[in-house]
Amino acid sequence: METSIIIETVVKAVVILAVFSALAGFTTYIERKVLAYMQRRLGPSNVGPYGLLQLVADGIKLFTKEDFVPQNAARPVFMIAPIITAATAFIAMSAVPFFPEFEMFGYVIRPIISDINVGVLFVLGVASVGLYGPLLGGMSSANKWSLLGGARTAIQLLSYEVVSGLSLLAPLMLVGSLSLIDINNYQTGGFTSWLIWSQPLAFILFVIAGFAETNRTPFDLLEHEAEIVAGYATEYSGLRWGMFFIGEYANLFTVCFLVSLIFLGGFNDLWFIPGGLAIVLKVMFLIFFFLWTRASWPHIRPDQLMWLCWKILMPLAVINILITGFVMMF
């Protein structure tokens, strides 16, 4: 029995690693196509039909590009930093239930690696450890621009983790559990039972914090592509840069699944749409929303980012917790 559980867990981990690594690459294609459509450009169109083989070309370039370490860099830390970012992004997925249970060849499969009763806390905690990747990468690069980029990364991620944590307290008070499966089951009453209707402010705050924590426009100040240098990733190239990149997109999928599970009914059936398909559609819409925002909003300054976090979002999150507590009392 224990052997079968171990084998099942290993298979699930390999599947999640392979699927979301592939989705990270494919999302770059979708992103370029969506941005091109909204900005009246073509996007990838020359390599393969509809530019689909652009993904292969990018992969070949990524794996064959020279991977160098700066002369004065702290070599072990410099090499480990990208691994921290990618590893924490995938470890955080281990407590996320992606789909409802289903049966295959008479065997019941639960699409979650580890069903722990503090799933939300685990996901947020492991994801927050990911900030050590950019921070250590910037500090170890022997480059002042990388150091400044690493410091800016730590400030942004730490600040918005406060907002994301506080924004979830109110809906968790209603559910009475930290398990993502319990939160999903709380919304089994259909469309009207979604937590977004009883906690709209928490939903908005968590989504905004998600933009900041996944390095998405308008909060993409971690590796700011409009600058001459690339923040903490200035000295990185090849596969090590790609690991930062994969970790970023893996976190994007994790945030979208969390929003779907906590606020949008999770993988419960939606009218005639089965639960497995319903959550895929929700995540696809959220991914599109993130891309749409990138095409529509300009970058903001670091001081504006901090002002928004500490003077607007955090007070709103605290007020929402107080209001929820009073409503539950009376």
Automatic annotation (TrEMBL):
Any GO molecular function: quinone binding
Superkingdom classification of source: Bacteria
Chief place of localization: membrane
Example GO biological process: aerobic respiration
Topology within the bilayer: Multi-pass membrane protein
UniProt similarity note: Belongs to the complex I subunit 1 family.
Classification via HAMAP family: NDH1_NuoH (MF_01350)
Name recorded for this polypeptide: NADH-quinone oxidoreductase subunit H
Organism of provenance: Malaciobacter halophilus
Gene: nuoH
